[in-house]
């Protein structure tokens, strides 16, 4: 097999199917890091952009949030999808820059501070125990992703928002349609208009929730957001439901992917699984390694506010840059032996949560969920092996395993 050209490797970052083939995407990103760490990408259906694949360059962009802005193109989408989102006036935290971003982020910030998370830990540990019990009761075989991993984080984030348990199947369907919009198994349709309809369905659900929380606040995060006052004015309807949608999708699918991919890594590296099982004090470093290994958010976009350069490459004002977190987290210059899964990796400055002012709002919650789940699972896991081929989601934004058939013994 001949190696892809630089242009072919660069276009891989805009191909959802490439992320469903880890060998292919990592080969392309490794080639880009070595030969063209800031590579121009001109892919069919997409507006052009620069792919940034080195950890150091990603950090440079993340630190310079005034020079490299989130607006108007925070996520890689086709040109048609960008037009549809702009027309729908979608405005979440990832679409905003300071000072608006800082003010809007503060609306829900208290829910993710250490005091609030400490109060939540008992509930998260309880939910971890419930879902490991479900895994035990399922028998000796299951699809770990669809039967366990999608449900635990969804219960956590919906409990935080205050969504009733009876609505969880509907929320699962909507979040999978949205985050899986590039995957044939989960997408509602190949039509961008139909895919936008899935987002509008979620917005309709959350509009009803917002109206209820304004009429009768219940002390949950949904009430906090619905009744927030920003710059002396109540938060507008589109901002409230956009906030809900971001919390629901980002707080669910990213953690699902980390738990699923982390478990796959432990299955494929039994010596690391034994180390962690024998010494649960390694769980904090193991959690960070799982997050680095999986990198559930594949990339974010930034736009240059003025003429500049990055890695010696001239970048014009208005040019868009894709920050490849997947590549940054396998950068040989940033990590010792980056393709080795190591539950005790101590120097682990991964970029899976981003960096700087846009650092993931729910990072500490995600870490707590991963820690709680595997702290409950591993001491009860007697054996585990694959029961079929794992499958990854086709995506250019958020994703990971969608199927992980396993055979196991659990007490």
Brief rundown of the structure:
With 411 residues, the chain is of the alpha+beta class. 50% of the residues lie in helices and 12% in strands.
Write structural notes for this entry.
- The protein has 411 residues and is α+β, with helices and mostly antiparallel strands.
- The protein has a single domain, classed as Cytochrome P450 (Cytochrome p450).
- The N and C termini lie far apart (46 Å).
- The chain contains 16 helices and 14 strands.
- α8 packs antiparallel against α12, α9 packs across α12 and α10 packs across α12.
- The protein has a five-stranded mixed beta sheet, sandwiched between helices. A three-stranded antiparallel beta sheet has the order 4-14-11. It has a two-stranded antiparallel ribbon with strand order 5-6.
Going by helix content, strand content and strand pairing, the class is: alpha+beta
SSE ordering: HHEEHEHHHEHHHHHEEHHHEEEEHHEEEE
CATH structural class = Mainly Alpha
Estimate the mean pLDDT confidence.
93
CATH topology: Cytochrome p450
- Label the CATH architecture: Orthogonal Bundle
Keywords:
50% helix; five-stranded mixed beta sheet; Cytochrome p450; monooxygenase; alpha+beta; Cyt_P450_CS; 12% strand; three-stranded antiparallel beta sheet; 411 residues
Topology, please?
Layout: H1 6-12, H2 22-35, E1 38-41, E2 49-52, H3 55-63, E3 68-69, H4 79-88, H5 100-109, H6 114-137, E4 141-143, H7 144-149, H8 151-161, H9 168-179, H10 192-215, H11 221-226, E5 229-230, E6 233-234, H12 237-268, H13 270-278, H14 283-294, E7 299-304, E8 308-310, E9 313-315, E10 320-324, H15 325-328, H16 363-377, E11 381-386, E12 391-392, E13 401-403, E14 405-410
Parallel strand pairs: 2-10
Antiparallel strand pairs: 1-2, 3-7, 4-14, 5-6, 7-10, 8-9, 11-14, 12-13
